[in-house]
Amino acid sequence: MRWPDYRFHGSFPGKLAWLLAAGAALSVTWPQSVRADEAALEEVTVTAQRVSERLQDVPVAVTAIAASELLERGIRQAGDITASVPNLLLNSPYGPEAQPTFTLRGVTTQDFSENQSSPVAMYVDEVYKSVGAVQALQTYDLDRVEVLRGPQGTLYGKNATGGAISFYTKNPSLTAYDGYITAGAGNYSAYSVRGAVGGPVIDNEIGWRAAVMYEKRDGWVRSVVPGVEPLNGVDAVAGRLTLLAKPNDSLTAQLKVSASRSGGTPYGAHAINNDPSLTGSSDPNFSLFTGNIGWFDNGAKFAVHKDIRSDNAT
Question: What is the rounded average pLDDT of the residues 263-279?
Answer without folding.
Answer: 62
